[in-house]
Task: structure prediction
Amino acid sequence: MNAHDLQGRKALVTGGARGIGAAIAQALAAAGASVMIGDVMEDTGRETASALASNGTKADFVRLDVTDDANWATAVDATIRSLGGFDLLINNAGIEITSLVAEIDPADLRRMLDVNVVGTALGMKHAFRAMRPEGAAGKGGAVVNIASVAATIAFPGIAGYSATKSAVDRLTRVGAMESGKLGYGVRVNCIYPGLVPTIMGQKLATDVVAAGLFPSVEAAIGAVIEQTPLGRLGEVGDMADAVVFLSSDASRFITGAGLSVDGGMGM
Result:
């Protein structure tokens, strides 16, 4: 059997409507998993789930605001009911609001903390409760959190975002330790994506120019590429393949780890 085969696995992907999240959902499906798309973007999320289903994947959509504890409970219940189980959580939902440190808006910072940190923590909470032996799914599993190369480098204009993604790294490691010590049977890892030209990535390039940090979008992107040993931006497929690996039995003895998927930018 291929160690990356996910046949029989049931996954919930947050922020799965578009961008990296949608690519992750597609890659999990291609590896054989059933997939629940969780997102606040209802129309786009349903379209993504329908596209997966049209290719023969068991797929569904649930509205999920990751900052809401009760919403998480509902989404996990819906995943178990629709897919027949739950053993993979991809904590992908996140936001980035660019700001110089001297211009930080407390409301923007709190919003990033709420989505990126609280949202990830609540996802782990409900995944652990469902996947542990006495849980509603009860077969163990894996959680993959999406951090960022921003947690490992000092790139201007993203101090608040960097702080939240550093917190995701710490949540990952403590969660992995607790799961192991308490016998939950859930591995917890994260990846650090490099810059990917999704809608969010393109907006970041525009925002750092508006902040006066670079003279043009091309210069901002060029600065990222210059710092990247592999000499290019990331692609959504690069991130998705790493998530499949950490979701699969190929990584069965890996937990509490952070995998850089950044072309070497953060080394």
Remarks:
- The helical segments are 19-30, 42-54, 69-83, 106-131, 159-181, 199-210, 217-226, 236-247.
- The chain is about 45% helix and 15% strand.
- The CA atoms of residues 176 and 188 lie 5 Å apart.
